[in-house]
Amino acid sequence: MGINKKGKRKICVENKEYVWYVNEDYDSPYYVLNILSEDKSLIVSCPLKTETAYLICKGIVFQNQKTSGVWNRYLLPFIIPEIITPVFVAGIITWATKGANATLVEWNGRDIPV
Fold first, then answer.
1. Does residue 38 belong to any structural domain of this protein?
2. Is residue 50 within 8 Å of 43, Cβ to Cβ?
3. Are 65 and 14 in contact, with CB atoms under 8 Å apart?
4. In this structure, are residues 13 and 20 in contact, taking their beta carbons and an 8 Å threshold?
5. What is the pLDDT along the chain (114 residues), one digit of tens a residue?
6. Residue 46: inside a domain, yes or no?
7. How far apart are CA 45 and CA 35, in angstroms?
8. What DSSP letter does each residue of 64-111 carry, written as one string?
9. With the C-alpha atoms ordered 110, 75, 83, 40, is the resulting torsion angle positive or negative?
């Protein structure tokens, strides 16, 4: 099944198509940047304007490794800009696909401990 692209932006990174969009998270006070690969192997969400910058991996591949499919949270090694741009989105995609040694953090239900 394909991805609904209505209201979403497309980006091509290393000859692979991705869709990204920002929406309000209904379970928290944050807006969230969502990025999905066309084949849905990479699915990540990045809460915006949080105290600690982190990314939630929801897909089956992260940093070129298969995942268990359980949502995992990783500290971002860079700062989230005030305005989300395609350059920033491409940077997250590159880090999430080609990067290594991401720092896994446990979520305690309230915040992300550093």
1. yes
2. no
3. no
4. no
5. 566 667 789 999 999 999 999 999 887 788 999 999 999 999 999 999 888 899 999 999 999 889 888 889 999 998 999 999 999 999 999 999 999 889 988 776 666 643
6. yes
7. 6
8. TEE--SS-EEEE-SSPPPSS--HHHHHHHHHHHHH-----EE---SS-
9. negative
Contact 101, 74 (CB under 8 A): no
Q: Which two tokens stand for residue 81?
A: 């800009």
Contact 39, 2 (CB under 8 A): no
What is the signed CA dihedral for 48, 54, 60, 61, rounded to 10 degrees?
Answer: 110
Is residue 71 a part of any domain in this protein? yes
Rounded to whole angstroms, the Cα distance separating 27 from 24 reads 9
- Cβ atoms 63, 102 nearer than 8 A: yes
Beta bridge partners of 92: none
Q: Does residue 4 lie in a domain region?
A: no
Total structural domains within the chain: 1
Instruction: Report which residue type is found at 15.
Output: N
